[in-house]
Amino acid sequence: MTKIATLLITFFICLNLISQENSPPKTQPTDFLSKSYYSINFGGIFYPFSNNNLIDGYATETFSRNYFSGRMLLGYKIKPNLAVQFGTLRPAAWFKYDNVNNIGYQRSVWINAWSLSLKKNINLNKKLSIYGEAGIANVTRVGFSINEKVIYPDAHYASLLYGFGFNYKLNDKFRLNLNGTFLPKSVKENQPSISQASVGFEYHIQKLSKEKVEKYDKNGFFFPKNMIQVGYGTSKIGFGINRFFGASLKVGNFESFGIPVFWVGEVKAENSLSVTYQRLAFRTEKIFSLDWGLSITAFNTEATNAQVLAFSIFPTVRFYLMRRKGFDMYTNYSLIGPTLLTKDNLDNLNAGPKITYQDMMGLGVFFGKKRRYNAELRIMHYSNGNIFPQNAGVAVPIQFTLGKTF
Fold first, then answer.
1. Comparing C-alpha atoms, which of 291, 293, 296 is closest to residue 308?
2. Which residue segments constitute the domains of the chain, with CATH numbers given?
3. What is the pTM of this model?
4. What is the tens place of the pLDDT at every residue in 142-161?
5. Report for 8-12, 262-266, 302-306: range of highest mean pLDDT
6. What is 324-383 written as a DSSP string?
């Protein structure tokens, strides 16, 4: 109880600090944001797993390889052509050993790499630049067992990461990327090299002119400065929405129907209750906003009725889909919200350390006089993003939330 009381006090202290008024208009990005960017890239990933990685006596004649992969990065420009980047690289689906020893065993090998790196651009002309990248990666591999015998062990280690590529500047905000990223093999961890070739883009946040700030600030579009929400969810309605957005919904002959933009989790929450506070940090003229938030979520698991509390700090991006006289409709998305869980072993599954991450996505509306009220449907997920091999993940079914803006 002392631990919970301390966390509650910390929560409300943070709430007070975040809710303090800041003088700059929210349409003008802060100095930190104006030097920041995000990068989204997709392409092919190559990792030559083979039977040589398995223990003696186990092999297969065929493998299922998925080459499609993604890399997402957050960057901060130390200088105009020098940046520090943090992000993740992973395949869209895992490598599979098919029919191991010809007795029907099919097993997957999961890999994931979180990285921290420096990126240096060298301008070739006003539009085109070449870059070099070097840093360190946290590599996680989840191997597999057969009949409780480890055939390919898990691994968790630090690796060098390096790369190069081209940036093409479309305008002050957008750059196109052509990338090559490499992680050398680890003999000690019995891990092949990892390489990725990808294309994508960078979005650089820019300071606005005084005239634009004043125009956007007075344009009449609603963006809540502060919002309190209370949400409740139950597994009685199922996890269909979670599985759809995790591309794991079974429909007819399809085993993985849906859109791969979210995660599910091996641990299933039976009931959940959340209290969430969000505060506006930045907004554009009409469509986009960035909020910072704090939340407390209580849930119990389906299998063993484990009682868990989750304390989270998180960023949220919100895109306004429709603005009408009586309401504003939006979708939101939140990733990598640092979270403390009060338990780590859930339903006899190892979820990794108690310090983990919260992810959310939802669809909602602001309504009423001066948009004082809010209603939202959201799904949630807790996991460590495969930073550690132990990452069962928690799926929280769709929550119905009501909120008040102020």
1. 296
2. 2-28+219-405 (2.40.160.20), 31-204 (2.40.160.20)
3. 0.76
4. 999 988 899 999 999 999 99
5. 302-306
6. -SSEEEEEEEEEEEEEEES-SEETTEE---SEEEEEEEEEEEEESGGG-EEEEEEEEEEE
